[in-house]
Design brief:
alpha/beta; 3-stranded antiparallel beta sheet; 15 strands; 39% helix; globular
Length: 434
């Protein structure tokens, strides 16, 4: 009866075109039981609630609590994995006493690292947050001009932080993990449309920074892109869900600093411009406004030779183009690397640099990868959704060791950043560190 009632609430809604936001309103999600418990409605529900429900924040908060109860992994699961409970993601029960001990150990480790931070701090970079984890609110998220836009649960953020700690533990002593969560363009363009600019604010990154070890840093993309919007810069597409390559560069610049690297200037890249560009919002719900105000797509590549390789077997690969000009006209953002794919790809760069990086990302990382090539001799790309152990022949942890990866950049859109399916299940279960 509960699911019938929820379906009734959502029935017949969505799909209308909203000119003010240059897009089509989200379609109603399918709340049949099998879709709730296998996670299929996650993305659709948050989009739909943001578009249609009065009292949006309360509704999304209720849904997130429901999703957390039905999901594959929680903060407790991730703590269990850290302590050696190998089957926690499969549902192994861990006692409250054991969880309390694990949480206390995590806090003790963090306190010791905070005391030693002066010896591991990156010069000229803002130090990590030392705020007490318990002092954070239970729900953190994005607000636009002081109005709540959407939330993430504290448990989900902490679970993500614990997985990032495990990634950092795979790296050499001088390695770094730099994490960012990128709001979709629907949020950014809502801020663009606001008559006043009172802040494009995200509060989850400070918790990630406070909860992780000294090798892990979190960069606040919303803050960086919001300042770009306030300065009139072109940081989000109007007709596509992604950030523009220039918006990507703004965040890339801060992320590289957090890894102790000097970012390349915008003019240090080759930039080929494609106009007009009309993205997937236009493809799925064309409007006259978008047609009359098309986007521009900057194709960014380094000024040196790159051999881009896709692994097709154990220690074997074939070469693919860095820019795939066969990408569909109505999905041209996928010109970068041919779009999200797997199981593992990497670039060998002719730039004389020895240090190597791994970018763990969803589609928001596609435009980031060609830029980070400027700082590393090899850059590896992993979209966890398409990783295939049987093809690659190594776990993710073993791949990091096999290729001598020094730094890891985690560039994730808001729908995947703290989602149990992407980092907490897919990446966590693929690390192979237990």
């Amino acid at each position: 009866m509960v699911f019938l009632g929820v379906n009734f609430l959502f029935a017949g809604k969505g799909g209308e075109i909203i000119e003010s936001e240059n897009r089509t309103l989200a379609l109603a999600p399918d709340f049949r039981p099998q879709n709730v418990f296998n996670g299929n409605i996650s993305d659709d529900t948050e989009s739909f609630l943001a578009d249609h429900i009065f009292g949006r924040s309360m509704a999304i908060g209720f849904y997130n609590r429901l999703k957390d109860r039905a999901s594959f992994a929680t903060y407790e699961d991730s703590l269990a994995i850290q302590s050696g409970a190998k089957d926690a993601l499969a549902g192994e029960k861990v006692s409250d006493e054991e969880l309390a001990k694990m949480a206390e150990e995590l806090r003790r480790q963090r306190e010791a690292e905070i005391k030693a931070a002066e010896t591991t701090a990156i010069p000229n970079v803002k130090p990590k947050s030392t705020k007490d984890i318990d002092s954070f609110d239970d729900w953190l998220g994005i607000s636009i001009n002081g109005e709540d836009y959407y939330y993430f649960s504290k448990d989900g953020i902490l679970a993500t932080a614990s997985v990032l700690n495990r990634v950092a533990n795979c790296l050499p002593k001088d390695g770094h993990v730099v994490f960012t969560m990128v709001p979709q363009s629907v949020a950014g363009n809502r801020y663009v449309a606001e008559p006043g600019k009172g802040g494009f604010v995200s509060t989850s990154e400070e918790l990630v920074d406070a909860a992780t070890n000294t090798k892990v840093r979190a960069v606040n993309s919303a803050e960086i892109l919001g300042k770009g919007i306030e300065h009139g810069e072109y940081v989000y597409f109007r007709s596509d869900m992604h950030w523009t390559p220039y918006g990507t560069w703004l965040v890339y610049s801060e992320m590289l600093k957090m890894a102790g690297q000097k970012p390349a200037a915008w003019e240090d890249f080759n930039i080929q411009v494609e106009e007009p560009f009309l993205g997937t919002y236009y493809r799925d719900g064309p409007t006259l406004y978008m047609e009359q105000n098309p986007d521009r797509l900057d194709l960014v590549t380094p000024k040196f030779n790159v051999s881009w390789r896709r692994i097709d077997g154990v220690d074997s690969y074939h070469e693919i183009p860095l820019l795939d000009f066969d990408a569909m006209y109505n999905d041209r953002y996928t010109v970068y690397l041919g779009g999200p794919a797997g199981p593992w790809t990497y670039a060998a760069c002719d730039n004389g640099i020895d240090r190597r990086a791994l970018v763990i990302c969803d589609s928001f990382g596609l435009g980031f990868v060609p830029q980070v090539l400027a700082n590393y001799g090899q850059v590896h790309y992993l979209d966890c959704r398409y990783y295939d152990y049987w093809t690659v022949g190594y776990t993710v942890k073993e791949m990091i060791e096999h290729y001598n990866i020094s730094d890891v950049y985690v560039v994730i859109g808001d729908l995947h950043a703290y989602d149990n399916e992407y980092i907490l299940y897919q990446l966590s279960s693929q690390l192979g560190d237990q």
